[in-house]
Specification:
Double-stranded beta-helix, 7-stranded mixed sheet, 27% strand
Length: 297
Protein backbone atom coordinates (compact mmCIF):
# COMPACT_ATOMS: atom_id res chain seq x y z
CA UNK A 1 0.00 0.00 0.00
CA UNK A 2 1.42 3.36 -1.05
CA UNK A 3 0.46 6.43 0.96
CA UNK A 4 0.58 9.97 -0.28
CA UNK A 5 -0.48 13.34 1.06
CA UNK A 6 -0.77 16.62 -0.79
CA UNK A 7 -1.34 19.08 2.02
CA UNK A 8 -2.40 21.83 -0.35
CA UNK A 9 -5.13 19.47 -1.53
CA UNK A 10 -5.98 18.25 1.99
CA UNK A 11 -6.38 14.75 0.53
CA UNK A 12 -4.77 11.51 1.70
CA UNK A 13 -4.07 9.04 -1.09
CA UNK A 14 -4.00 5.27 -0.55
CA UNK A 15 -2.86 3.18 -3.52
CA UNK A 16 -3.13 -0.58 -3.05
CA UNK A 17 -1.03 -3.00 -5.05
CA UNK A 18 -2.58 -5.55 -7.37
CA UNK A 19 -1.33 -8.31 -5.08
CA UNK A 20 -3.08 -6.75 -2.07
CA UNK A 21 -6.35 -6.41 -3.95
CA UNK A 22 -6.17 -9.98 -5.29
CA UNK A 23 -5.21 -11.37 -1.88
CA UNK A 24 -8.28 -9.72 -0.39
CA UNK A 25 -10.62 -11.00 -3.10
CA UNK A 26 -9.23 -14.52 -2.81
CA UNK A 27 -9.72 -14.52 0.96
CA UNK A 28 -13.39 -13.54 0.63
CA UNK A 29 -14.16 -15.61 -2.45
CA UNK A 30 -16.79 -17.67 -0.61
CA UNK A 31 -18.72 -14.59 0.57
CA UNK A 32 -21.24 -13.61 -2.11
CA UNK A 33 -23.27 -10.44 -2.55
CA UNK A 34 -26.47 -12.18 -1.48
CA UNK A 35 -24.77 -13.00 1.84
CA UNK A 36 -23.85 -9.36 2.34
CA UNK A 37 -27.44 -8.22 1.85
CA UNK A 38 -28.88 -10.53 4.51
CA UNK A 39 -26.05 -11.41 6.94
CA UNK A 40 -24.47 -8.29 8.42
CA UNK A 41 -21.71 -10.17 10.22
CA UNK A 42 -20.19 -11.17 6.88
CA UNK A 43 -19.64 -7.51 6.06
CA UNK A 44 -17.28 -7.29 9.02
CA UNK A 45 -15.55 -10.48 7.92
CA UNK A 46 -14.69 -8.63 4.71
CA UNK A 47 -13.15 -5.84 6.78
CA UNK A 48 -10.99 -8.39 8.56
CA UNK A 49 -9.81 -9.89 5.29
CA UNK A 50 -8.94 -6.42 3.99
CA UNK A 51 -6.78 -5.65 7.02
CA UNK A 52 -5.02 -8.98 6.58
CA UNK A 53 -4.22 -8.00 2.99
CA UNK A 54 -3.18 -4.37 3.45
CA UNK A 55 -2.03 -4.14 7.08
CA UNK A 56 -3.73 -3.62 10.43
CA UNK A 57 -2.65 0.03 10.63
CA UNK A 58 -4.86 0.98 7.67
CA UNK A 59 -8.02 1.22 9.78
CA UNK A 60 -6.49 3.67 12.25
CA UNK A 61 -4.90 5.71 9.48
CA UNK A 62 -8.16 6.04 7.52
CA UNK A 63 -10.28 6.98 10.53
CA UNK A 64 -7.72 9.51 11.72
CA UNK A 65 -7.72 11.10 8.27
CA UNK A 66 -11.50 11.36 8.06
CA UNK A 67 -11.80 13.02 11.47
CA UNK A 68 -8.90 15.40 10.90
CA UNK A 69 -10.17 18.89 10.11
CA UNK A 70 -6.95 19.68 8.23
CA UNK A 71 -7.71 16.80 5.86
CA UNK A 72 -10.97 14.88 6.18
CA UNK A 73 -10.77 13.36 2.70
CA UNK A 74 -9.18 10.16 1.36
CA UNK A 75 -8.88 8.67 -2.10
CA UNK A 76 -8.40 4.89 -2.26
CA UNK A 77 -7.30 3.17 -5.47
CA UNK A 78 -7.66 -0.60 -5.84
CA UNK A 79 -6.93 -0.95 -9.55
CA UNK A 80 -9.08 -1.36 -12.64
CA UNK A 81 -10.59 -4.42 -14.28
CA UNK A 82 -12.59 -5.39 -11.19
CA UNK A 83 -16.09 -6.85 -11.43
CA UNK A 84 -19.02 -5.09 -9.82
CA UNK A 85 -19.19 -7.81 -7.14
CA UNK A 86 -15.49 -7.30 -6.42
CA UNK A 87 -16.04 -3.58 -5.97
CA UNK A 88 -19.07 -4.07 -3.72
CA UNK A 89 -16.94 -6.32 -1.50
CA UNK A 90 -14.11 -3.78 -1.41
CA UNK A 91 -16.41 -0.87 -0.60
CA UNK A 92 -18.16 -2.92 2.08
CA UNK A 93 -14.86 -3.87 3.68
CA UNK A 94 -13.71 -0.25 3.76
CA UNK A 95 -16.97 1.24 5.02
CA UNK A 96 -17.21 -1.21 7.92
CA UNK A 97 -13.75 -0.14 9.06
CA UNK A 98 -15.32 3.29 9.67
CA UNK A 99 -18.76 2.42 11.04
CA UNK A 100 -21.97 0.65 10.13
CA UNK A 101 -23.36 2.40 7.01
CA UNK A 102 -26.86 3.86 7.03
CA UNK A 103 -29.78 2.55 5.01
CA UNK A 104 -29.53 3.88 1.45
CA UNK A 105 -33.00 3.52 0.04
CA UNK A 106 -36.44 1.93 0.13
CA UNK A 107 -35.00 -1.55 -0.38
CA UNK A 108 -33.25 -1.33 2.98
CA UNK A 109 -29.78 -1.85 1.54
CA UNK A 110 -26.65 -0.32 3.03
CA UNK A 111 -25.29 0.82 -0.34
CA UNK A 112 -26.79 2.34 -3.44
CA UNK A 113 -25.68 2.22 -7.06
CA UNK A 114 -26.52 5.11 -9.37
CA UNK A 115 -26.38 4.80 -13.15
CA UNK A 116 -26.05 7.92 -15.26
CA UNK A 117 -26.82 7.70 -18.97
CA UNK A 118 -27.51 10.04 -21.89
CA UNK A 119 -30.83 11.49 -20.69
CA UNK A 120 -32.16 15.04 -20.79
CA UNK A 121 -35.05 14.28 -18.44
CA UNK A 122 -33.92 11.96 -15.62
CA UNK A 123 -36.03 11.31 -12.54
CA UNK A 124 -33.52 12.86 -10.11
CA UNK A 125 -31.19 15.83 -10.41
CA UNK A 126 -28.25 13.59 -9.46
CA UNK A 127 -28.69 11.67 -12.71
CA UNK A 128 -28.71 14.69 -15.06
CA UNK A 129 -25.42 14.42 -16.95
CA UNK A 130 -25.08 17.67 -18.87
CA UNK A 131 -24.98 20.30 -16.13
CA UNK A 132 -22.68 20.70 -13.15
CA UNK A 133 -24.16 18.97 -10.12
CA UNK A 134 -24.09 21.74 -7.52
CA UNK A 135 -21.94 21.63 -4.40
CA UNK A 136 -23.76 20.23 -1.39
CA UNK A 137 -23.52 18.06 1.71
CA UNK A 138 -25.53 14.91 2.42
CA UNK A 139 -28.05 14.23 5.17
CA UNK A 140 -31.40 15.99 5.04
CA UNK A 141 -33.78 14.45 7.55
CA UNK A 142 -33.47 14.33 11.33
CA UNK A 143 -33.16 10.54 11.37
CA UNK A 144 -30.59 10.47 8.56
CA UNK A 145 -27.45 12.29 9.77
CA UNK A 146 -24.26 11.85 7.77
CA UNK A 147 -20.73 12.15 9.16
CA UNK A 148 -18.85 10.41 6.35
CA UNK A 149 -19.64 9.74 2.70
CA UNK A 150 -18.12 7.24 0.26
CA UNK A 151 -18.38 7.46 -3.54
CA UNK A 152 -16.81 4.60 -5.54
CA UNK A 153 -16.67 4.61 -9.32
CA UNK A 154 -17.64 1.17 -10.61
CA UNK A 155 -17.76 1.50 -14.38
CA UNK A 156 -17.89 4.05 -17.17
CA UNK A 157 -18.30 3.99 -20.95
CA UNK A 158 -17.91 6.85 -23.43
CA UNK A 159 -17.29 9.28 -20.58
CA UNK A 160 -15.50 12.59 -20.74
CA UNK A 161 -15.86 14.99 -17.82
CA UNK A 162 -17.99 14.18 -14.81
CA UNK A 163 -15.19 14.88 -12.34
CA UNK A 164 -15.76 15.15 -8.61
CA UNK A 165 -15.93 18.75 -7.38
CA UNK A 166 -14.77 19.33 -3.81
CA UNK A 167 -14.58 22.35 -1.49
CA UNK A 168 -13.22 22.35 2.07
CA UNK A 169 -14.75 25.05 4.26
CA UNK A 170 -11.36 26.01 5.71
CA UNK A 171 -10.32 27.03 2.19
CA UNK A 172 -13.45 28.93 1.20
CA UNK A 173 -12.44 32.57 1.05
CA UNK A 174 -15.93 33.97 1.79
CA UNK A 175 -16.85 31.72 4.74
CA UNK A 176 -16.68 34.33 7.50
CA UNK A 177 -18.56 36.88 5.44
CA UNK A 178 -21.50 34.53 4.94
CA UNK A 179 -21.27 32.97 8.41
CA UNK A 180 -21.71 36.40 10.00
CA UNK A 181 -24.41 37.51 7.56
CA UNK A 182 -27.83 38.11 9.23
CA UNK A 183 -29.31 35.81 6.58
CA UNK A 184 -27.41 32.81 7.97
CA UNK A 185 -30.34 31.69 10.11
CA UNK A 186 -31.61 28.29 11.20
CA UNK A 187 -33.47 26.85 8.21
CA UNK A 188 -35.60 23.80 7.60
CA UNK A 189 -33.89 21.02 5.66
CA UNK A 190 -36.33 18.49 4.30
CA UNK A 191 -39.00 17.96 1.69
CA UNK A 192 -42.48 19.35 1.15
CA UNK A 193 -45.15 16.64 1.35
CA UNK A 194 -46.49 17.32 -2.13
CA UNK A 195 -43.03 16.94 -3.67
CA UNK A 196 -42.97 13.98 -6.05
CA UNK A 197 -39.98 12.48 -4.21
CA UNK A 198 -41.83 12.31 -0.89
CA UNK A 199 -43.15 8.78 -1.38
CA UNK A 200 -39.67 7.52 -2.20
CA UNK A 201 -37.95 8.93 0.88
CA UNK A 202 -40.68 8.05 3.37
CA UNK A 203 -40.02 4.35 2.78
CA UNK A 204 -36.81 4.63 4.78
CA UNK A 205 -37.20 7.86 6.77
CA UNK A 206 -39.68 9.42 9.18
CA UNK A 207 -39.37 12.51 6.95
CA UNK A 208 -38.91 14.72 10.00
CA UNK A 209 -36.94 17.72 8.75
CA UNK A 210 -33.74 18.85 10.40
CA UNK A 211 -33.11 22.47 11.32
CA UNK A 212 -29.74 24.18 11.05
CA UNK A 213 -28.01 27.26 9.83
CA UNK A 214 -26.22 26.64 6.56
CA UNK A 215 -22.92 27.74 8.11
CA UNK A 216 -21.98 27.06 11.72
CA UNK A 217 -18.87 26.45 13.80
CA UNK A 218 -17.99 23.69 16.23
CA UNK A 219 -14.74 23.72 18.21
CA UNK A 220 -13.67 26.65 16.02
CA UNK A 221 -14.08 24.48 12.92
CA UNK A 222 -16.00 25.87 9.96
CA UNK A 223 -18.91 23.61 9.10
CA UNK A 224 -21.69 23.56 6.53
CA UNK A 225 -25.07 21.93 5.90
CA UNK A 226 -26.61 22.57 2.49
CA UNK A 227 -28.50 20.84 -0.30
CA UNK A 228 -30.14 23.29 -2.68
CA UNK A 229 -32.98 20.84 -3.43
CA UNK A 230 -33.91 20.32 0.23
CA UNK A 231 -33.38 23.60 2.05
CA UNK A 232 -36.75 25.28 2.59
CA UNK A 233 -36.82 29.05 3.20
CA UNK A 234 -39.78 30.82 4.75
CA UNK A 235 -39.09 34.35 3.56
CA UNK A 236 -37.82 36.21 0.52
CA UNK A 237 -34.74 37.33 2.45
CA UNK A 238 -33.87 33.74 3.35
CA UNK A 239 -34.19 32.72 -0.28
CA UNK A 240 -31.96 35.58 -1.35
CA UNK A 241 -29.31 34.56 1.19
CA UNK A 242 -29.39 30.98 -0.12
CA UNK A 243 -28.96 32.23 -3.69
CA UNK A 244 -26.01 34.47 -2.76
CA UNK A 245 -24.39 31.68 -0.73
CA UNK A 246 -24.72 29.15 -3.54
CA UNK A 247 -23.31 31.51 -6.14
CA UNK A 248 -20.33 32.25 -3.90
CA UNK A 249 -19.38 28.63 -3.27
CA UNK A 250 -19.78 27.67 -6.93
CA UNK A 251 -17.48 30.54 -7.93
CA UNK A 252 -14.81 29.84 -5.30
CA UNK A 253 -11.31 29.53 -6.69
CA UNK A 254 -10.70 26.73 -4.18
CA UNK A 255 -13.13 24.25 -5.73
CA UNK A 256 -11.10 21.19 -6.73
CA UNK A 257 -11.88 19.00 -9.72
CA UNK A 258 -10.77 15.42 -9.13
CA UNK A 259 -10.79 12.72 -11.80
CA UNK A 260 -11.49 9.29 -10.31
CA UNK A 261 -10.80 6.10 -12.33
CA UNK A 262 -13.00 2.99 -11.97
CA UNK A 263 -11.92 0.90 -9.00
CA UNK A 264 -11.25 4.01 -6.89
CA UNK A 265 -13.25 5.79 -4.21
CA UNK A 266 -13.42 9.11 -2.41
CA UNK A 267 -14.35 9.16 1.28
CA UNK A 268 -14.88 12.52 2.94
CA UNK A 269 -16.06 14.20 6.10
CA UNK A 270 -19.54 15.49 5.33
CA UNK A 271 -19.44 18.34 7.86
CA UNK A 272 -16.71 20.46 6.30
CA UNK A 273 -16.33 19.15 2.75
CA UNK A 274 -18.87 19.99 0.08
CA UNK A 275 -19.04 17.79 -3.00
CA UNK A 276 -20.57 17.90 -6.46
CA UNK A 277 -19.83 16.80 -10.01
CA UNK A 278 -18.80 18.57 -13.21
CA UNK A 279 -20.92 18.07 -16.29
CA UNK A 280 -20.25 15.29 -18.81
CA UNK A 281 -19.60 15.88 -22.47
CA UNK A 282 -22.63 14.81 -24.46
CA UNK A 283 -22.49 11.31 -25.94
CA UNK A 284 -25.40 9.02 -26.94
CA UNK A 285 -23.72 5.98 -25.34
CA UNK A 286 -22.69 7.70 -22.10
CA UNK A 287 -22.84 5.38 -19.07
CA UNK A 288 -21.43 5.64 -15.58
CA UNK A 289 -22.17 3.59 -12.47
CA UNK A 290 -21.19 4.76 -9.01
CA UNK A 291 -21.67 3.21 -5.59
CA UNK A 292 -22.48 5.30 -2.52
CA UNK A 293 -22.37 4.57 1.18
CA UNK A 294 -22.58 6.90 4.14
CA UNK A 295 -22.89 6.77 7.89
CA UNK A 296 -22.07 8.26 11.28
CA UNK A 297 -18.82 7.90 13.18
Amino acid sequence: MKLGTAQQDRIRYYEFSQDQTLDFLAACHDINIHDLHFMPYKRYLLSGHLLEAVGEDFQQSLNKCLRDYASGCAILAFGQGLTQDDQIKISTAVSHLISEPAVQGPGGNYYGITKIVDDDNPKFKLMFPYEDFSLHTDGVFEDNPVDWLMMMKLREHQVSGGHSRLLHMADWEAYDIFHDDPGNQSLRHGLLEKDGRYNVFRKFSTMEPSHSAILYKRDSQRRVKFVDQYVIPRTINQARFIARFQLAIEQSRHVRNVALPPGSMIILNNHFWMHGRSKFERHPQLEREQLRQYGCF
